[in-house]
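Supplementary Text 2. Reproducibility record for the structural model of the 310-residue chain.

All settings were left at their defaults, and a single model was retained for analysis rather than an ensemble. We include the record here because the model underlies the residue-level annotations in Supplementary Table 4.
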Amino acid sequence: MKIKSISLKLLIILSLTILIFGMVFAGCKAQEEPAADQGFNTSSRDMDMVEEEESFAESEVAGEISEEATTADKGIGDVPVTGDRKVIKTAHIELEIEAGEFDEILSRLTNLAEQNGGFISNSQSYSDSEGNITSGNITLRIPSNKYTSALEKVKDMGTVKSTSSSGQDVTQEFTDLESRLRNYEVQEEVLIDLMAQSKKVTDTLEVQRELSNVQEQIEIIKGRMQYLDDLISFSTIDVYFYEPEPLTTTGWGFVESLKNGLRGAVKVLNWLAAAILFTSPLWILAGIILLIVWRVIKARNRRRARKEQK
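Retained model, structure tokens:
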């Protein structure tokens, strides 16, 4: 009985020991798990921060690239492209002026162009049947910001018979030219670097040939841009001005009628003389034919007369 009681006590003590050990182990495990979770969360936050920093850095780089592209789109040589319309303005005016004022109007038009910071690109004068200069054509190049006021001053110099004006928008063409120019300039830089790195003569010649083509295109584009920029900066006013033709009256006197009659007779005689000279070969040919016919008829009549006498 004593042995059984001792064994029962040992079994109870052993069970309690195992139960206590299990509870302690479970408590330690529960403490370790939050710590592990805390470490995992910390590393996740670190990863999120790294990703945010990388994203921020990428956005900054993208912003810089976008800013450079925007700056490049503004134009080359401080010429604005976006926001400014590039329009070529042209006007044509037909102006009737007072008699004897041709030289004065010509001088006023020239002074108008010079006073507005422009110039005369073309000027032509025409004379009448008596040799007096009474009409002409002049082309004024006026800064575009003074185009309207100058046009009104030209109209005030005489009586406007006809007028027309036009505006050609070349903004798109100018923008395309700038884009092509940037592309060719990038190609030029690349080809220059390649030529510097080339070690073979054949490679150098090939790069040099391509570089020459690219540089030629650059010069063509720059020339076209300069031409358009000149037309945009200075508007064109083409003026044709003239004095009225003098009125002529026809008299009804005897002397005037006699002169007109003599002029008519001389014209008729001149026409007849010209017609005779022009048709003289036909008259000569006709005379030869008539002479031959007359001799044939005369010879036939002689033969008839001889037969009748026999």
